[in-house]
Amino acid sequence: MHILGISAYYHDSAAALISDGTIIAAAQEERFTRKKHDARFPGNAISYCLKEAGISISQVDHVVFYDKPLIKFERLLETYLSYAPRGFRSFVAAMPIWLKEKLFLKTTLKRELSAIGNIDINELPSLLFTAHHESHAASAFYPSPFEKSAVLCLDGVGEWATTSVWLGDGNTLTPQWEIDFPHSLGLLYSAFTYYAGFKVNSGEYKLMGLAPYGEPKYVDLILDHLLDLKDDGTFRLDMSYFNYATGLTMTGEKLHKLFGGKPRKPESELTQKEMDIARSIQAVTEEIVLRLARTVKKELDVDYLCMAGGVALNCVANGRILREGPFKDIWIQPAAGDAGGALGAAMSVWYSYLDKPREADNSSDKMRGSYLGKRFSNTEITNFLDNTDAVYKQIEDSELMPQLAKLLDSENVIGWFNGHMEFGPRALGGRSIIGDPRSPKMQSVMNLKIKYRESFRPFAPAIKAERVSEWFELDRRSPYMLLVAPVKKEKQLPMTEQQEQMFGVDKLNIPRSEIPAVTHVDYSARIQTIHKDTNARFYDLIDQFEQLTDCPILINTSFNVRGEPIVNTPEDAYRCFMRTEMDYLVMENILLAKTDQPLQEKDESWKQEFELD
Fold this sequence. Notes:
- By secondary structure, the protein is an alpha/beta fold.
- The protein folds into three domains: 2-142 and 333-369, Nucleotidyltransferase, domain 5 (2-Layer Sandwich), CATH 3.30.420; 180-331, ATPase, nucleotide binding domain (Nucleotidyltransferase, domain 5), CATH 3.30.420.40; 378-609, DHBP synthase (Alpha-Beta Complex), CATH 3.90.870.20.
- The protein is 36% helix and 18% strand.
- The protein is built from 21 helices and 21 strands.
- The strands form four sheets. The chain has a nine-stranded mixed beta sheet, with helices on both faces.
- The longest helix has 29 residues, at 272-300.
- Residues 606-613 have low confidence and may be disordered.
- GO terms for molecular function: catalytic activity.
- It holds the Pfam family Carbam_trans_N.
- This is Carbamoyltransferase.
- Belongs to the NodU/CmcH family.
């Protein structure tokens, strides 16, 4: 039985296909269209999933959408009515698209699906709808390694819910309680993302990365004025400070006055104020999440926790739950945002709607390392390169891996295009840019010359799974780069008194450990453990690097430039390689050196093609 899950029309459209309960394929639409956070119908992603399974749309048994649009429309109307006459401009802006498209989503979906399969609408499979947070909860629990666990979903807003708690047991998910719009931890964090001058729904990572450069000066201001936080982690926001319920911006004049000025203009200079703002809202977020986790443990009396929703991508908070929380272990859906809702919706149909049995495996999850996207063969890659007049060598792994290890040891930056593309926002060794973490200059080089992004942004270490506890304060798997942990004390480099007194981005150039390129200014790192059973080639590369250097770690960052989605095809990878100052590109067994490529006029028009966020 084939079930196709779809998320679309808000942000991060995606499709996922499961067959007899097994995840076959999943991908975000942005990877195909090259439009970051593409919200349109995921026609390309659906076509990929069907092709990967070797079926047509007519062979799908159920199609399921991750959201209930009529309930969401109800929430919009009730919100506008309760705030009237405020929000009239926003109401006028929102209604045309609802009345034209979103309110009649069933018809829209059927039309789009029939176009994909070129079949009559009446021949389409049954169309189902799950609730937004049910999709999140299903994406977190059903693929997890736990037979029974609590499930905590935290995001901006679904239909009404912004925070929800579930009990997962076998093949059932039972809702416990929820916090509803407009009281939202996700929207609170996004409001400060906006206030700090970053783009909502994509700049939250930047705010989290900026936090260690600041001091928590505004924590009391936030807790005293913006929200009423209870001991159990539940909260209510004072909406007089915010504008997102009915307005066209996230924050209002009252908040601006409280924090001493209007939001920072995008792309303008970052000041210590933004760093302190970032640190403060991060501290508040962590406190709320920790309180919620303790409450959930007390109420449900289970040993394990699963998480999904956009806030579950806050890997600093996740690390604190693991270290300080009451659970034996936690598992976070790697595609925790809206894209993962497509997978959750499909799994919800299989287990909840169809009541199929579920068996958990405590040793591993069912996500296949999240390598669920398209894979390209050496032949497909060379066919493209031959048509591009690119210069390359095809090398077997036995020779290629030691050669790449030597190149990395010489501080070269390499584009790594390997196997199936990742599902979710993180590059996990499928579409990655890699480098030597021991190099003090590598963070700045990769940020400014490769990624074209802010210099303060940290990079993640990819480490052989069995060596993680030797380098970091972490004693378990972290395959999806969703946990932050401190670097081991014995690997850290102490700072001088003068260095201790430094503030802001001046901290950036101080080496903090033996692996400075992946050690953040607070001695933390966002860790990915690499496993031979899910990504053998990436594991082998790191193993070769370790044999050469005694370091079982590589820098792993996403294969893209700022404002552009992670690369999908060989063409995407080669274009990104030629537009940046990467030294080498390896696609499967194909190796390209930048110095060997035909001279091309530097093309920077792409910087205008994408909205820089």
